[in-house]
Design brief:
The complex is a heterodimer. Chain A is built from two helices and three strands, in the order βββαα. By secondary structure, chain A is of the alpha+beta class. In chain A, a hairpin with a 4-residue loop joins β2 and β3. The two termini of chain A are 38 Å apart. Chain B has a single domain, classed as BH3618-like (Roll). Helix content of chain B is 8%, strand content 34%. In chain B, strands 1, 2, 3, 4, 5, 6, 7 and 8 form an eight-stranded antiparallel beta sheet that branches. The radius of gyration of chain B is 14 Å and the shape is globular. Classes of the chains: A alpha+beta, B mainly beta.
């Protein structure tokens, strides 16, 4: 891992098109500004990881819609008041 | 039920988180599958998902697309878009819909994205009820 010390308003460049700039330094966090081409996805790590896990779980359990409907109906019949997670 | 039809191969240029190497998908919909749709990855190891129109799950569902999202979809902002929430079947027979990161497809350009909106506060595991 490359490690940099950056001060307020200083930036780093990744490749030739991505800039990460320090916009604010607070007690509880650092505010960063990312400038990148529109085809470069930029996400918060924890959100991305959560969605990746959800996609993997959904793909692993994928079944035909008919099977899915039958399963859900069976589940609701045996759990008339499903509790919210 | 969706009124936006997609016929052919849709390109997700960035792939989907966890399946970045699969870029080509087809949308399979039929009367028999209603209200569900199947999203089938075409590239090797491509995933298959069951999905549903998020408005079927949450009637007031509305999520903003910004300028960058529209550009990624090749959309002018006027094209009708297909919105799909990925459904996850659980061990106990229940199922949930991912309203946090819906798939958005622009049939006019045959391009799609999985929208990871910064301001989207919908749940990733909304319970699914079938009537």
């Amino acid at each position: 891992m490359l490690v940099f010390t950056r001060r307020l308003d200083e930036a780093i460049i990744i490749g030739d098109g991505i800039e990460v700039k320090v916009l604010r330094i607070g007690k509880d966090g650092v505010r960063l500004g990312v400038t990148a081409a529109t085809h470069v996805p930029v996400h918060r790590r924890e959100v991305y990881d959560q969605i990746r896990a959800a996609n993997a779980a959904a793909a692993a359990a994928a079944m035909s819609p008919e099977q899915l409907v039958a399963r859900i109906r069976g589940h609701l019949a045996s759990n008339p008041k499903p509790t919210l997670p | 039920m969706t009124s936006v039809a997609v016929d052919g191969v849709v390109t997700f240029a960035e792939g989907l988180p966890g399946f970045e190497s699969c870029r080509q998908f087809v949308v399979v919909a039929s009367q028999a599958m209603q209200p569900f749709t199947v999203i089938q990855g075409l590239d090797a190891g491509g995933p298959s998902f069951v999905a549903i129109d998020p408005r079927r799950v949450e009637g007031e569902y509305a999520t903003e697309l910004d300028r960058v999202d529209l550009a990624r979809l090749g959309s002018t902002g006027q094209d009708p878009l297909l919105w799909l929430a990925i459904v996850a079947a659980r061990e106990d027979g229940s199922a949930t819909a991912n309203l946090r990161a819906p798939l958005v497809i622009n049939p006019a350009a045959m391009r799609g994205i999985q929208l990871i909106g910064v301001d989207n506060t919908y749940p990733i595991d909304h319970p699914l009820l079938v009537t």
